C-alpha cells in the first residue's frame, strides 16, 4: 500500500509538472557587448510531453514589428528541474539590416517562488554561418496571455499538403462548446452507424491534422496539447458521404478525468465543429 501511494504521488507530480511547463513563458534576454541590442523581450510557447520532451516556438522581439520566430525542441529533467532548449529553424523574422538572427541554445532552471520562473543562460551562432553570438542570460515567468499567436503544430507532410489543398467552402455548424481544465486532450472518432466508407479530413484552428482517413469501429485518435486561455476549433470536413448519407461519427473527448461523447455529422453543405478552451 505504501509503495502504491508513493507511485501515485510521483505520477501526480509528473502530471502537475506537465501542466505547469506547457504554456506561455515571457521575460527578458540580455546579451553582452557586441550584440544587436543589450536586452530583448522573449516569449516561449512551450509544449511539454509526458516523456519529458519539449517543443515549441521562441519569439525574440524588440517590439511586435521587430522579432524573430524560431522553432525549438528540448528536454526537461524533473529531478534536477533543468531544461535545455535547442532552437532549430528560423520560421519568420523582421530585424534591422545590421542585425542577424541568432540560433540559440538555452540552459534553464525551473523554480516557483510565488510565481513560476525559468532562469539561466544562452549561447548560439548566427543564422546562415557559424559566427558565435555574444551570449547572455534569461529570466522568464509563466504568463496566461500570449503576445504572439499560439500555433497548432503539424508534421511536415501535412504542412506541405495543406499548401496545395483546395477544399470547397462550407458552412460551419458548432455541435458543442466545452471548457476543459487540462492541457492533455485525446479525441477519438468512430463511424457512428454501419461502416459504410465515410472518410474525413480534420482541422484544428484551420491547421490540417488528418487527411482523408476512413472512419471504422476502431478509433481514429488525435492527441492535442492545449494552451491555457486559448480557444480551439476542431472541424470535421466530410470527404464523402459513404454509402449512407450523411457522414456521421461518434466523437469521444477525454480531458483529464472528464469524458465527453457526442454524435456529429458533416455533409456537402456543412462541416461539424466542436469548440473547446483550456480555462
Offer a few descriptive terms.
single chain; about 280 residues; mainly beta; Lipocalin; Immunoglobulin-like; 8-stranded antiparallel beta barrel; 5-stranded mixed β-sheet; 17 strands; elongated; disordered N terminus
Describe this structure in words.
- It is a single chain.
- With 279 residues, the chain is mostly beta strands.
- It folds into two domains: 2-143, Beta Barrel (Lipocalin); 156-278, Immunoglobulin-like.
- It is 10% helix and 58% strand.
- The chain contains two helices and 17 strands.
- The chain has helices spanning 2-21, 156-164, and strands at residues 23-30, 39-48, 53-63, 66-77, 82-94, 102-113, 115-126, 132-143, 171-180, 184-191, 199-204, 207-214, 220-225, 231-238, 247-255, 258-266, 270-278.
- Strands 1-2-3-4-5-6-7-8 form an eight-stranded antiparallel β-barrel. Strands 9-17-14-11-12 form a five-stranded mixed beta sheet. The protein has a four-stranded antiparallel beta sheet with strand order 13-10-15-16, with no helix packed on it.
- A hairpin with a 2-residue loop joins β3 (53-63) and β4 (66-77).
- The radius of gyration is 22 Å and the shape is elongated.
- The two termini are 35 Å apart.
Write a concise synopsis of the structure shown.
The strands form 3 sheets. Strands 1-2-3-4-5-6-7-8 form an 8-stranded antiparallel β-barrel. It folds into 2 domains: 2-143, Quinohemoprotein amine dehydrogenase alpha subunit, domain 2 (Lipocalin); 156-278, Immunoglobulin-like (Sandwich), CATH 2.60.40. The protein has 279 residues and is mainly beta.
